[in-house]
């Protein structure tokens, strides 16, 4: 089935409404650009004041143009733009690119007009991009539905990159920078106010378009969670890397985002969760954004993290090794036997990893070939970086370098290899043609290889594991906030382990429960009116005799009555005493765009001081939960510190996954869940306290 | 007084020993380069086989050259190189650049020969750089004492940058990359094996040479701590930024560093301490190294952290705001009145900060000028970044842009201003001439401004505060390890507060001490043979009656005798019970190169799991101690969490400074000190346990 954006991004016929005879004007630029680029479809300039426009016959109105045009460019004033769109829809135009501004970004009145546009798109099925956008282009088709200067930055033939940017100015910026970096883009789309088509829909289009192999996306916020998730999933299934710049990370940034667009920025932690979950690479700077895209366009992804570093400078070898560790790659040593043979080739070489050819390689470049070949043959690396500085550019060594790498590539067509060198485009290009991406900065070469390794892992992992369904006896979401005992009943019903405990109404019952539990117990007052139990002395620890338990009951009731004479008292909770283990916290928050997200972190200072937490969108399986656990800073706590035994990570991961399933099933009913502390033991884990707050509860 | 490297780096006469007629050969390159560059001094080629070399009269040996040559280039084989050096020294040659390799980097024999070279330098006073180095150059003097290809990368007239690199290959790399980036270097020095002149001595030279304003330094390790500290201090006193790349950060990196050079890499934490203490900027990648140098060469440093961000794209504004927060800058909002006026100028602008001109500024560029002027006039920012993408390069807006910024610069010559734009060198240069550094990537523009702000703080701070001297009664360093009570006596004597406590030998004495302390006490067994007291039950808490204290004494003696019948028992410590406060750790380690360094961190998981510690070289004052305290991750703990009161930071800083003074005074006697825990209270602080280990103690 043809994607609904096909007529907009590969149109066979185009109408320009508000066409201009002047090639530099907004309504003239698309016509001029398409004529220059040899666009093969029909071009229909629409303007009632001219017979011909830029030597093409002009039409007085869209009604005069043959029906069923693929795409109309709307370059008319805001006051007539909505009616023009309606006319297009009536004429069976399949899509529209709206340059016109003056809508939601400008005033309430503009926002109302924009809602009309959304309505036209929905009713007619005509796809609309914009308003207030810089348009779209498709270089290989010669289709320039844009008035941006961006196409003027073109330096390379079109390749496999598709760019989509909510912001037109940033879209133009990134196109220019990426051309300078040797990134070969073909598609470029800016979505502006997103009255209909949004960034996610364009990603979806790229995911199914065989011309696009790598997606570069920029957004300040996203509004349609389902479409975003579906689009990212399609891209991952198609093994197309998505590199995303989502701005608005810090508070200062977020404030600027809110003032800039009408879009909802959402909590940044939730975007982080989304990107991790769908294997998206999140770039922090434009330079990183473009550098990773450059690396991805070669389409080779390492199968694992073992990296081989080869260098003509020991110092740069150290830099690359440092960077590899920073980016999570494994600078594994070469096999001892290989090290010995390399030493024989170049006596003063470093042979462990990094392999340092030394300047000797310049005197006899063939040594370099032998060195690299031996490393590929005898060791088992997933990727290779060779640092050569100016050697490939020097007239003395240029030809030898090319020959060496051509030989290596012929023998080992599938090895993932990058080069760090300094030289102009004519020096770099022969290596790029050998499928060897080239970088100037050695540390940033490593960063790019780490990005490819990340995508390699994402693609080989494929779709994440499915979470198990909720158990049959799962309790429904509460209608008012429930704490402690009631909340733990819910957790228990969905398979999240909780402390063994009972709510009792007398000292005798309390003693019976203590006997059943068999060991020291904790006793707590249970009252919906007493939230901070410890403040009134409402928690007693380590009670372990009939006398202690019976007296404890009386003490708690007494304290509660004294502290809050009118409090409703449900009784006293008698619970097993949990000792040892590592304190963690789990929770659920409800994002207005993406719905429930599950949080995980370690207790105490990790959460309170370091904010060391991570999120995932609900629901997710146990494997994803393990990835969450592995990415917190304090991860080592769970391996056991100060001689403590390691924690039961499976029990923890199971609990996170189950909580996520419950949150997803009750997405419309639950506002927040806190499970704090959730103690992970050497065997098993147990929720000690919990709070569940339903939606719409103002208390 | 003339610096001892003056003859090497600004020589009036040069001998090339091993001179070649062929301009491309090692012994021919310097002569060829100097002739092309119009070197004004005398050039004496030395080679017994020629009458003339490259049209200059040749000399058979250094003895035939006029005495007192400023610099000799040694380009002869290793086996005759040492004798050649000796001959130079005998002839009164003032300095030598040794290209020859085959010394410490190659073999033990080579290392012996290198020690001879060091000896010649010491005895004769002739300064020697190398062996195994790529040499030196000084572009403005036309002096090329190098056989590197680096000078071929020259693109700009010489400026104010001095480069020094231990590694020749990396030195050439960074010269090439920095030229591409528009960094105007003049001096370039590679130190190779550092038999005499090291990186630090060259920094010292740059610090006192008025031609150099910015220092770029690269090293894998350093050996002469005093010289390094002196050099960095001179540079800071002269307000010359030093940007340092010191590789070998991670374990993998450090292993590669050790295999590459004969130098001592030292613990990386100690280098971090050194750099922070002397206000050096540590770069992580070559790209960062060069980018910061580029920014520094304009010589304007902001006076504070308040940054004004102006942009033609809201999205990029958000990126820059995010980056500003990341790099510790303050994106302060504009005054409300100014915001209102800006809104009047551009109705749809973002006016808080970032200020978003919107595309309106392109239609009427003068609006931009008014905008920026108003911001400078009415708000109190320390720095400004203006993001303009391709606007300054577009033929429609190029001239207007130049005019606007020329006007602004004329009115406000001292405002620190940067621009983020895309365009070739001819577009960038006019702005550079207005003292506006230009960057492509908006986030990296912010990084560069943050670096300038860092140097601004370093320079305005000047020399750090001097620590107070040790008190008169300070105890000497111990001769064997001392723990707990004895160690705390030492701390107390140097002014570091410790728990009030006494060592007692009877239950009666114990009771007397308890009475004196007046409140609950802790009692601990004191025995040099029992290190892990808690394991044998040797610590009793919260004793607060005559009976408890007397019984406690008996219990502890009893437990100690049972657990270790032969242990020497000194008695029992009766100490005040410290409650509340924040647990921290302080310590001293002795670095083989830099001597004692003081560590600070928070106790518990912060040290054990997160390794959240920071170091400074001893001694240092209270202000430096405050900076240490402020840079740990868990800093917020000291402000009080969960309703705890804030900690007494002055008491903590005082203690760190005093410990540093003691460590420095006893640098040759003390191996390590641990003060753990050191509890910081709302008022005051107190060491609860400590251990001091002297040097040379193997126990």
TrEMBL record, chains A, B:
* SMART domains documented for this protein: CoA_binding
GO molecular function annotations of the record: ligase activity
Instruction: Name all ATP-grasp domain ranges.
Output: 488-524
Q: Where are the transmembrane segments?
A: none
Annotated keywords: ATP-binding, Ligase, Nucleotide-binding, Tricarboxylic acid cycle
Under InterPro entries, the record lists:
Acyl-CoA_Synth/Transferase, ATP-grasp, ATP_grasp_subdomain_1, CoA-bd, Ligase_CoA_dom, NAD(P)-bd_dom_sf, Succ_CoA_lig_flav_dom, Succinyl-CoA_synth-like
Q: Name one Pfam family in it.
A: ATP-grasp_5
Its protein name is Acetate--CoA ligase family protein
